[in-house]
Amino acid sequence: MVSGPAVPVIAIDGPSASGKGTVAAAVAAHLDFHYLDSGALYRLVAKAALDRGVLLNDEPKIAKIAVNLAVRFSGTSIYLDGEDVTDAIRTESISAGSSIVAAQPAVRAALLARQRAFRSLPGLVADGRDMESIVFPDAVLKVFLTASAETRAERRYKQLIGKGISDNIPRLLQELRDRDERDCNRASAPLIQLPDARLLDTTNLTVAEAIAQVLRWVEPVIPRPSMGA
Ligand code: CDP
Questions:
Q1: pTM, whole model, 2 decimals?
Q2: Which of 27, 43, 97, 229 is 20 to 30 A from 190 in CA distance terms?
């Protein structure tokens, strides 16, 4: 299997609930590329730790959990120790927990090779916080996808309601702000917009418009087989 630098990576980083997961998955489907939802790995670590009663600030124990994480991605479903946890890792307590474990360097190190293993032909679309700075610094396209905090809180609210999880917008807004603060100000792999990343502010864009913009940026950097040749 071809992997490594020969395989093109499109990286999409950005803050919580900016819509990067939706856009990244759609771009991957459009190009027939693999897709890595790196945030899911941090969510899985938080869930495994909480299930086992491990304190989220116990870095050595959390890193061990990250190394041994028995996870399987199958289509849009995610399995932890054989159990379907696709929706269970989207609760707000797991969101908060994931950003606590994600600040720990040993946990990030434990997940690095696992993330890079997703890089295989014909290409990969990866979303997260450090896809561009640490995991795939040689990505052929780097997008920093964001939206106003209020818009993001509304989007997260609709997403949770759609999953049958009730919540309220003021609480979600506070949670997003706390998580932004932790993700942007941590010492290890903070969320930053790199100078070579293109900014995509989706506050006033529909999902379809955001996907179309990324695909316009993709066109010159991913050689496509010529049609009808
Ligand atoms: O979907 P949402 O943007 O709310 O979160 P996510 O992408 O699933 O990521 C959950 C948490 O994992 C984030 O708040 C980050 O703390 C952490 N994370 C990270 O540190 N690095 C990544 N590459 C992806 C996520």
A1: 0.93
A2: 27
What's the pLDDT band for 138 if we cut at 50, 70, 90?
Answer: very high
Q: Is 189 a member of any domain?
A: yes
Compute the distance from residue 16 Cα to the ligand 1 centre, in Å.
Answer: 7
**Which domain range does residue 62 map to?**
8-219
Q: Which residues pair with 203 in a beta bridge?
A: none
CA 183 to ligand 1 centroid distance, Å:
8
Mean pLDDT, the chain, whole residue set: 93
Reading the block at residue 12, the tokens are 């999409």
Is residue 201 in a domain? yes
